[in-house]
TrEMBL record:
Organism in which the protein naturally occurs: Urochloa decumbens
UniProt family annotation: Belongs to the DENND6 family.
Residue span, UDENN domain: 35-517
Record-given protein name: UDENN domain-containing protein
InterPro entries: DENND6, Tripartite_DENN
Length: 632
């Protein structure tokens, strides 16, 4: 387990004095990472209140009721009733939410990361109090902000709100975020070592190329504890993966914000490296501005593609048109991991040592009279059965095409009865699951590879032409061709006979944003490859094989690309741009030198062209008609 860095700050008046004397963080530098750091208190008379915020006007300046929305999203729907019945007890939890950004002119979102502390004390009014410390950011850097909250949260409770400005000063001193790369970010006496997820506009690896290292994030929320969140529903992971791929609406119900937000993050991470374009809310409350719109859907109206994590059972009635409901987690907050109903699965080893996870414990289709009756009862009652008792289950009208991979499940390790090693076992299991679903998604996307394949100039051909267009994509032709070829070796072992239905993905909300992004990336890569070929080409050797007319055409083409390079890189002055322009200028002069004299005179009549050709000296042509030297 990573050691949490310490941040030294004295409490009380000394803390306030230290914060006041410290230079304020650079607002622009801070905004690269976070919008605001907040302390939110639950007031018995007035409800949720923003007690402190840094920068002070960060929430109010955004308008649109952002302060109220963040406040309501930073607390559980009700004080936990499962805390130990001692005279005084403290319960800390971490969770996240995602809300619309009212300050953005387009549809953008803010991510909230919450450290919530509930304290029960019989001496306090109503027997307890609760307060939350929140980091609000435009970036979904969960692996970073969860670590930072484990510092900032306890620090705020120790020294007060002055900790917000102090930690903000550390964050403002960090270098700019480097999406998709590992970073070491100093904080207090140590550093946070994180690997940021790729940027939203990063298309990721080509669909036919499986990333070699599954521990590197190829999508959002790579740090989500997938195994713990869905341990009681492991056989349903493949159906859930399909629901996410095709963009089906999903309602995730859990006893606590920590469990539902972890489950939603895990679902989004399942489809990496696919760009997930559906709206998702790790923790959704009735105070969200979108609730009124969803609640007003008429009976029979199609529910929009969304993934909503909720703890309030009121949503089971108000959003009853949602076709897929998954219940996760355990009402017992004393467990650090989400366990199946009925307790933790026993280990295969002795004395609590880890062993293989027994598939018979997961076999939802294993026949017995009791299991059959329970299954029928669960299906008949539907999600509303959660109103009386929380149980892990999936209710869905979707017909899956993928079969659970028992070879993957057989590799999972059970921690036995020892919570001491449970976290390390979860890390191993998450690695196994992520590797499999990364491979599954990559193979599912592989048939689109030919439409994203780049080309380079063939040997001996001129690179001074526009590269060919990528193959045109037509959905009907793609599906017909795929039906004729089959799903491929990897998928054929894991798919049912209706496997082609999964490619309804083409009609869903995830396909077009992903395909356009991949297509744009392929076109950009092709332009880069052809530009590099122009820089590397031996112009004299190339033109020695050309006729006079072809040499004139080549001169015009080289000039065109030189002017384009100069225009695109105007004012940048980087070494690569300077070298490219220099090489193209040399090539232009070499091409000019082998042209007929009358053509040279005609070309030099253009003043701008004459500047480009300035310094060309007449040389006697060699045996092959090529000038071997030019003077610049």
């Amino acid at each position: 387990m990573n050691r949490i860095p310490s941040v030294s700050l004295r409490g009380g008046a000394d803390a306030d004095a230290a914060a006041a004397s410290a230079p304020p963080p650079d607002p622009a530098a801070l905004a690269r990472w976070a919008r605001a750091f907040c302390v939110i208190r639950f007031d018995l008379e007035r409800g949720q209140l923003v007690e402190a915020c840094y920068p002070p006007d960060a929430l109010a300046a955004a308008g649109g009721g952002l302060d109220r929305l963040v406040a309501f999203s930073s607390f559980p729907d009700s004080m936990s009733h499962h805390l130990p019945r001692h005279r005084s007890s403290v319960h800390d939890s971490l969770f996240s939410f995602r809300v619309p950004d009212p300050s953005s002119p387009r549809r953008a979102f803010l991510y909230g990361f919450v450290f919530n502390r509930q304290r029960q004390d019989e001496r306090l009014p109503r027997g307890g109090e609760q307060k939350s410390v929140v980091i609000l950011s435009h970036a979904p850097y969960s692996s970073l902000f969860r670590l930072l909250l484990q510092i900032l949260g306890p620090l705020c409770f120790d020294v007060g709100p002055s900790a917000l400005a102090m930690v903000a000063s550390h964050v403002a001193a960090w270098p700019a975020p480097a999406p998709g790369r590992p970073m070491e970010l100093p904080i207090g006496s140590a550093a946070l070592r994180v690997h940021l997820p790729p940027a939203a506009d990063d298309p990721g690896p080509p669909p036919a190329l499986l990333p070699a290292n599954p521990s590197v994030p190829y999508g959002l929320f790579h740090d989500a504890d997938l195994f713990a969140a869905f341990r009681g529903l492991l056989l349903h992971l493949w159906t859930l993966w399909e629901l996410m791929v095709v963009g089906e609406p999903v309602l995730v119900v859990a006893p606590s914000p920590a469990q539902c937000s972890e489950a939603v993050a895990g679902l989004v991470s399942l489809v990496a490296p696919l760009l997930y374009s559906v709206d998702y809310r790790p923790y959704f409350t009735i105070h969200d501005p979108d609730f009124a719109r969803l609640n007003a859907l008429a009976e029979g109206e199609v529910f929009p593609p969304m993934v909503l994590g909720v703890t309030n059972l009121f949503f089971l009635k108000s959003l009853k048109s949602i076709p897929n409901v998954v219940a996760v987690g355990s009402p017992n907050p004393n467990s650090t991991r989400v366990l199946p109903v009925g307790g933790q699965l026993p280990g295969n080893g002795t004395n609590g040592t880890p062993g293989k996870l027994k598939l018979d414990k997961l076999a939802i289709n294993k026949f017995s009279p009791t299991s059959l009756l329970n299954s029928i009862k669960l299906r008949r009652e539907g999600p509303l059965s959660l109103m009386t008792e929380h149980k892990e289950a999936l209710w869905s009208t979707y017909a899956p095409t993928t079969k659970p991979d028992t070879s993957v499940l057989n590799r999972l390790i059970d921690a036995g009865v020892s919570p001491r090693i449970e976290e390390s076992m979860s890390v191993v299991n998450n690695e196994i699951l992520r590797r499999h679903f990364l491979e599954l998604t990559t193979n599912f996307l592989a048939p689109f590879g030919p439409y994203l394949r780049t080309t380079t100039p063939s040997e001996g051909s001129s690179p001074f032409v526009d590269p060919p267009l990528l193959p045109p994509f037509h959905a009907d032709e793609f599906v017909n061709g795929l039906a004729a070829r089959g799903p491929g070796k990897f998928l054929s072992k894991r798919m049912r006979s209706n496997w082609l239905d999964l490619y309804r993905f083409l009609e869903g909300p995830n396909f077009m944003p992903w395909f356009r992004q991949r297509r744009a990336a392929a076109e950009q890569e092709q332009q880069r490859l052809w530009r590099q070929a122009r820089i590397n080409v031996d112009i004299e050797k190339l033109m020695s094989k050309m006729s006079e007319l072809e040499r004139i055409d080549s001169f015009n083409a080289v000039e065109q690309y030189l002017l384009r390079e100069m225009e695109q890189n105007s004012g940048r002055g980087n070494a690569d741009s300077v070298a490219a322009c220099q090489k193209l200028k040399e090539d232009l002069q070499a091409a000019f030198s082998v042209l007929p004299k009358d053509m040279q005179q005609l070309l030099l009549s253009n003043p701008k062209r004459a500047v480009l050709l300035q310094g060309v000296q007449e040389k006697a042509p060699g045996a092959n008609g090529i000038v071997t030297q030019t003077s610049l």
